[in-house]
Amino acid sequence: MRRADLVAGMLLLAVAAVYFHQSLFIARGFADRLGPAFVPRLLAGALAVLALALLVRAVGGRSEATPPPEARTGLLVVVLALLVGYALLMPKVGFLWATPVLLAAVLLALGVREPLPIALTAVGVTAALYGVFGRLLGVLLPGTPGRL
Amino acid sequence: MLERFALGAQVALHPQALLMTLLGVAWGILGGALPGISGSIAMALLLPFTFGMDPAVALMMLAGVYVGAMYGGSITAILVSTPGTPGSAITVVDGYALHQKGESGKALGVSLVTGTVGGIAGVAILVAFAVPLSRVALAFGPPEYFAFGVFGLALISSFVGRDLVKGAISAILGLMLATVGTDPFTGTPRFTFGSVDLVGGVAAAAGMIGLFAVSEIFYQIAEGVDWERIRGRYTTKLPSLVELWRLRVATFIGIVFGTIEGLLPGGGGAIASFIAYNEAKRWSKHPEEFGRGSLEGVAAPETANNVVTATALIPLLTFGIPGSNSAAILLAGMMLHGLQPGPALFDRTPHVVYGLFVGLLVANLFMLVLGLLALRPSIALVNVRRPFLLSAILGLVLVGAYSINNSMVEVWIVLLTGVVGYLMRRYGYNVLAMVLGFVLGFMVEANLRRSLLISLGDPWVFFTRPISALLLALAVLTFAWPIVRRVREDRRGVPKLAPELTHRAAR
């Protein structure tokens, strides 16, 4: 956990800095004395202090000793990449094409190898989602005709 | 008062409302049965469906999910010794022991009936507390609301989870997420990075789905979470009245601790069920049976977690401070429909509040019936192979996020908050504190600035008003207490309280 705390502390310091920097661009309000940038700057300061506390603790060796359990991080990264690809491409190729491909790819990534269950799940789940959201609830999903 | 209940009954007994509550309870039982899908996650997944609904119906449906999930959680707890929800974690001990003795049906029946009793008692307690407390809340001005918001955040970030610094970081991150969008006071856009889509802020529903549901899916993928399949056929056996009478003490204990946990911000039934179990053992005539298949050991926690489904609404409805994950989602549901919880809610939209009261009663009765019917579908769902379940839920999450505003922005928000939520879980941060900061941020900031506007910039306004001063003092105390406790424990060498409990509660 100690290395994780070091990384997190530095990351959070960076978040606080970027957030503070962004708060400099908030237009001045006239309704109250504190203005719209006051609370964000307070939060940026608080986060910086807490991130420093995390760092000091990690450097001083007072972080929790137990490391988090083993994780299949590589697998998660693959699934995340698939999801990001889906978010980028789905508006272009359309919901009804992109979704079954994503579902099949996720199943493959998670180790399923039987073609028939993969195909049935990919098509079946997409059809069910389209039926409920696209038809019943009238959501305009990209590339679909929507509710008549 | 009576008129308002009549109004509530009119709303809750409308055929559409009944149907949605029924669907909500069924969804809750199925979701609750799935390990990892707690009541709050099942609710978050359902949020996008409720947009087009009447607000009262939407809230009833969401509350129905919460009620159903508490029973659903005990199905897997009893049959495969894996709690479906944190509230059923302790049910595993005696529920699974009963299952091994071949009394699975009896254990399920006791969980169902005592859960219903607890749920209905919870509604009575909710009404008894919420209505008078909403009068107290009328005396609250901006400084009190600010102080209460800070107190709520301090409580969640210090008591849930183990690490004070990480808890506070989590709450601050949530508050930061809430500052994206239009400033609550002047209408100035903040942190929108020039994007028109972010002027309205981060949609509460998207943040909830990401932090609760998507992070859990990522967690299950990365940590390889799995559980046993349920083999064999089971039917629920309802306990006889004589058997129920023997469980009266355990049930009563469940009601008491469910009420206490509901009033205090906590883990949505997990802590109440643990304490109720221990107390039921202490007061039992047969404490030696606990751990070897005691029906009281099932009744006490399962009563307690269902009581919480109603009593957790007390701080939410009266003060607008959610005390649990599920209450936070109900708050998001209210905000989606432009409802601001608090005393005004009781006067301006009594049909929503009293409709919810009656709707909760209805949901508990539905649970009793559905609990008998939904056992087989639940088992079938639990037995679906992991990858198929995960990919289907991912599909649901993506479409649900898109449907919030018919735009991809929410899809990106859900993915991003999902990653953040996963990392927070993995490294011991406090997701609930972040969610609470996120949903309360707007209210806390608006009331801070409003207070200082009224006091002409004098910060003493928070300390000269007694209620506000008291709440702020309590906030400091709740934050200092864990530090004091740790120092004392270190000195005495007391072993830390079961970390598994606090971990589960935080999820």
Describe this structure in words.
- The complex is a heterodimer of chains A (148) and B (507).
- Chain A is built from 5 helices and no strands.
- With 148 residues, chain A is mainly alpha-helical.
- Chain A folds into 2 domains: 2-59; 73-136, no CATH class.
- Chain B has 507 residues and is an all-alpha fold.
- Chain B has 24 helices and 2 strands.
- A two-stranded antiparallel sheet of chain B has the order 1-2.
- In chain B, helix 1 crosses helix 17 (350-373), helix 5 packs antiparallel against helix 6 (104-138) and helix 19 (386-405) packs across helix 20.
- The longest helix of chain B is centred in the N-terminal third of the chain and has 35 residues, at 104-138.
- Chain B is globular, with a radius of gyration of 22 Å.
- Chains A and B meet through helix 1, helix 2, helix 3, helix 4 and helix 5 of A and helix 8, strand 2, helix 9, helix 19 and helix 20 of B.
TL;DR of this structure?
The complex is a heterodimer of chains A (148) and B (507). Chain A is mostly helical.
Number of strands of chain B: 2
| N-C termini distance of chain B | 38 Å
Helical percent range of chain A?
A: 55-70%
- Whole-number radius of gyration of chain A? 23 Å
